[in-house]
């Protein structure tokens, strides 16, 4: 018998509890550590010279914070070879088993378990009996490998060469799927013959369990064969009943064949569906794919392959419907009437794809519904905001569980006709992702050349979308995928003017909210002045959603009073408006009445309409530095730099010193610093404010201006002119300097706006100076 020398360790080393694994000596294995105490223990061990750690198995693997009494006394001393940290904080450590040990003392030091140990002697026997047991165990393990799929057969090659009973026992124990207590017993048995004998018994038990499992599988196969037999018998019974002329033989497959035959669908669709139903007929009834095929056939049959509504081609009737539902919106209404006129003259199908762009609340979605009504077509809506999966557009392939057609085909299916009006809402808010780019998938849908043979992945057949009237909506066309933008006709719906909002409220919003609140027209009176007061002091939007919410609020408050006193008639006045709507939210400041040095009225466009922008400029001794404050955007800052360069290059014509940039600093500020301001259209206003500050000549207070400036002083085209002019009128300014190239935009202006404004069209900045800068100087 061979024995190892027994050693005791008098210093404490870290202890790591193991939940469901036992490591043996002379083995190298990875261990995963996530508990804080264990992580600290391993990290401390790595800092020591020998990297030693004691691994002890837990008696109860579910214990989250095991104490010394929760651990086995016998364990293994390992050396931590390497650690790998994961992002979640856990650690994978490579541990090399050194010796069997027994814990002599355990302490909790500074939040981690540490312990002293003594190494255990291994009793090794060498005899014919041991060799016989070795051979028997190897044969059993060979049989175990053949029967189980959990072990690679190549593992046996290395094990067959081991003739040491203790080592062979430890290695085989790691492969066995036994519980931790039995693996722990293998660790604790010091006599190598007894250990091998115990492992051999475990092997025998595992082989017997595998045999029981195989027997159970055979029984299950037998039951399955019985089900198949029953299915065949039922088929024979059905055939006999059909021969006898009974109705009982008609089943689901026959019903599907009948539906396909009677359906008004193209020939290629009939052939494809017939092939699918034949495949269904050959499948056993319990197969999971039968329900997939049935659902697919039903879905394809529900599609309107030939059903369509008849277009109403009465242009005057369509105009009446559009005007009845919406106030203004001349351009989109004219486009629909053009479509009807062409449709009446030409019988060829038109692939019509338009996109309404504009700020929220201007009526894009409701206009699409109104168009469907005016054309006598069905309406369906597809919300595209936030979609980041291409399959949402093209559909899922039938190989996936729960697959279904894409949103376009489902919209056509819901509409029930081949030529509906389909609204693609928030088209610019689709997002590309790792699941594909839905904007690219929309190219086929919205291309008039391709959409006549659109293929949905689920349907897996061509479907003609050329008769569908697609209407997309977007808040900003700039964010739209460029190839997609190229395929659609864009119609801009600008924000409403104050006068338009008053008309919309009087004709649509007030009657709708009175009805919704159960009030009669004579019980609550909204005058035009009260509507204007609500618009100016309670809303700041391009559309009318917030306005309708405040009208609804007033109706609800009035309803409370009328319930208390049914005979009450309420008339809203400026004095009592706050009682119904609360305190004012917005107070529009009037423009400065007196001419000021360095103060210019600029005009800005925002998503909620136009705004008057007061631009202030001030100079001070310095070295030519240009300071810009008021949350100005990059383009606006560049406009200020361009204006400053124009002043420096024209110093002689402006009667300024040649070295002004060396003497003075310029500070430009746009009040309401919390509001972001962007765009080049404030260029002439910024430049004039700086010239006024340098020359000490005041600027006319009854003039507002908009226009981009170049280094040579040219005044270039700007956008959003209508909204800017309305903002000027709202602030009491009637003289507006506008680029000459914007004169064409006046065609779209309401007459009441053009009649009140004196437009000053300019091509060069000198014209701006002549009109807006006063001659007299003011002493600063």
Explain what you see:
The chain is an alpha/beta fold. It is about 40% helix and about 20% strand. It is built from 26 helices and 24 strands. The protein has a 7-stranded mixed beta sheet with strand order 18-19-17-16-20-23-24. The protein has a 5-stranded mixed barrel with strand order 1-3-4-5-6. It has a 5-stranded parallel beta sheet with strand order 8-9-12-7-13, sandwiched between helices. Strand 21 and strand 22 (about 715) form a beta hairpin. Helix 10 (about 315-325) runs antiparallel to helix 12 (about 365-375). The radius of gyration is 42 Å and the shape is extended. The chain starts with 7 loop residues before the first strand and ends in an 8-residue tail after the last helix.
Summed up:
The protein is α/β, with parallel strands linked by helices and 780 residues long.
Question: Features of this protein?
Answer:
780 residues; alpha/beta; 7-stranded mixed beta sheet; 5-stranded mixed beta barrel; 26 helices
Class by helix and strand content? alpha/beta
Q: Mean pLDDT score, rounded?
A: 82
Strand content: 15-25%
The main sheet orders its strands as 18-19-17-16-20-23-24
> How does the major sheet shape up?
7 strands, mixed
Low-confidence stretches: 246-250
Give the number of helices.
Answer: 26
How many β-strand runs? 24
Secondary structure: elements and pairs:
Blueprint: E1 8-18, E2 28-33, H1 36-47, E3 52-57, E4 74-85, E5 91-109, E6 112-119, H2 128-147, H3 155-159, H4 165-175, H5 180-188, H6 192-243, H7 252-262, H8 267-282, H9 289-302, H10 315-325, H11 330-345, E7 353-357, H12 364-375, E8 379-383, H13 391-394, H14 407-415, E9 421-425, H15 438-445, E10 454-455, E11 462-463, E12 469-474, H16 482-485, E13 489-492, H17 498-516, E14 524-525, H18 528-538, H19 545-564, E15 570-571, H20 577-581, E16 599-606, E17 609-621, E18 626-629, H21 634-649, H22 660-663, E19 664-669, H23 683-695, E20 703-705, E21 708-709, E22 715-716, H24 721-730, E23 735-739, H25 751-756, E24 758-762, H26 765-772
Parallel strand pairs: 1-3, 7-12, 7-13, 8-9, 9-12, 14-15, 16-20, 18-19, 20-23, 23-24
Antiparallel strand pairs: 1-6, 2-5, 3-4, 4-5, 5-6, 10-11, 16-17, 17-19, 21-22
Helix pairs in contact: 2-6, 4-6, 7-8, 8-9, 10-11, 10-12, 17-18, 17-19, 21-23
């Amino acid at each position: 018998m061979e024995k190892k020398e027994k050693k005791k360790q008098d210093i404490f080393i870290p202890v790591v509890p193991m939940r469901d694994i036992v490591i043996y000596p002379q083995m190298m294995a990875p261990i995963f550590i996530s508990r804080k105490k264990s992580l600290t223990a391993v990290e401390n061990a790595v800092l020591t010279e020998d990297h030693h750690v004691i691994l002890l198995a837990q008696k109860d693997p579910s214990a989250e914070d095991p104490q010394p009494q929760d651990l086995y006394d016998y364990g293994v001393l390992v050396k931590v070879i390497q650690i790998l940290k994961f992002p979640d904080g856990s650690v994978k450590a490579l541990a090399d088993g050194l010796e069997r040990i027994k814990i002599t003392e355990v302490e909790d030091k500074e939040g981690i378990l540490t312990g002293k140990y003594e190494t255990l002697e291994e009793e090794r026997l060498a005899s014919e009996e041991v060799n016989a047991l070795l051979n028997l165990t190897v044969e059993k393990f060979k049989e175990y490998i053949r029967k189980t799929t959990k072990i690679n057969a190549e593992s046996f090659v290395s094990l067959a060469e081991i003739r040491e009973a203790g080592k062979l026992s430890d290695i085989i124990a790691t492969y066995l799927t036994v519980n931790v207590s039995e693996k722990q017993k293998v660790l604790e048995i010091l006599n190598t013959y007894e250990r091998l004998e115990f492992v051999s018994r475990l092997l025998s038990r595992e082989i017997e369990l595998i045999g029981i499992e195989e027997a159970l599988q055979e029984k299950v196969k037998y039951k399955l064969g019985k089900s198949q037999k029953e299915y065949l018998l039922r088929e024979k019974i059905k055939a006999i009943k059909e021969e006898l002329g009974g109705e009982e033989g008609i089943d689901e497959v026959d019903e599907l064949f009948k539906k396909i035959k009677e359906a008004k669908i193209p020939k290629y669709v009939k052939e494809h569906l017939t092939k699918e139903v034949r495949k269904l007929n050959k499948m056993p009834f319990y197969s999971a794919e039968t329900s997939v095929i049935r659902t697919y056939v039903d879905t394809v049959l529900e599609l309107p392959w030939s059903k369509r509504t008849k277009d109403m081609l009465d242009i005057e009737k369509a105009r009446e419907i559009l005007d009845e539902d919406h106030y203004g919106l001349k351009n989109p209404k004219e486009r629909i009437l053009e479509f009807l006129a062409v449709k009446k003259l030409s019988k060829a199908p038109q692939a019509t794809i338009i996109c309404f762009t504009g700020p929220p609340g201007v009526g894009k979605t409701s206009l699409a519904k109104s168009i469907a009504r005016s054309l006598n077509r069905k309406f369906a809506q597809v919300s595209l905001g936030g979609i980041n999966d291409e399959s949402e557009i093209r559909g899922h392939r039938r190989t996936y569980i729960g697959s279904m057609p894409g949103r376009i085909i489902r919209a056509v299916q819901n509409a029930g006709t081949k030529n509906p009006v389909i609204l693609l809402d928030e088209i610019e808010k689709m997002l590309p992702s790792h699941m594909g780019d839905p904007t690219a998938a929309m190219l086929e849908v919205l291309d008039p050349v391709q959409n006549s043979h659109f293929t949905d992945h689920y349907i897996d057949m061509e479907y003609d979308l050329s008769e569908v009237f697609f209407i997309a909506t977007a808040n900003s066309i700039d964010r739209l995928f460029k190839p997609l933008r190229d395929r659609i006709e864009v119609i801009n719906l600008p924000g409403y003017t104050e006068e338009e909002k008053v008309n919309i409220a009087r004709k649509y919003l007030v009657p709708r909210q009175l009805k919704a609140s159960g009030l009669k027209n004579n019980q609550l009176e909204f005058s035009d002045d009260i509507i204007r007061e609500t618009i100016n002091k309670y809303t700041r939007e391009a559309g009318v959603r917030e306005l309708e919410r405040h009208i609804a609020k007033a109706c609800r408050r009035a309803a409370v009073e009328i319930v208390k006193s049914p005979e009450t008639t309420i008339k809203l006045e400026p004095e009592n408006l706050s009682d119904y709507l609360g305190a004012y939210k917005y107070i529009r400041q009037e423009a400065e009445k007196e001419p000021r040095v360095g103060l210019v009225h600029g005009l800005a466009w925002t998503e909620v309409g136009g705004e008057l922008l007061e631009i202030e400029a001030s100079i001070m001794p310095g070295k030519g530095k240009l300071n810009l404050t008021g949350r100005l955007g990059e383009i606006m800052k560049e406009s200020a730099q361009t204006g400053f360069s124009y002043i420096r290059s024209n110093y002689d014509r402006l009667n300024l010193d040649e070295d002004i940039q060396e003497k003075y600093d310029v500070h430009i500020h746009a009040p309401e610093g919390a509001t972001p301001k962007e765009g080049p259209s404030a260029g002439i206003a910024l430049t004039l404010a700086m010239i006024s500050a340098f020359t000490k000549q005041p600027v006319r207070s009854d003039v507002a201006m908009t226009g981009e400036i170049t280094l040579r002083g040219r005044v270039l085209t700007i956008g959003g002119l209508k909204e800017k002019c309305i903002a000027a009128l709202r602030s009491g300014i009637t003289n507006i300097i506008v680029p000459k190239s914007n004169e064409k935009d006046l065609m779209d202006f309401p007459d009441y706006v053009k009649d009140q404004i004196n437009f000053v069209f300019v091509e060069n900045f000198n014209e701006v100076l002549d009109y807006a800068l006063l001659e007299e100087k003011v002493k600063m």
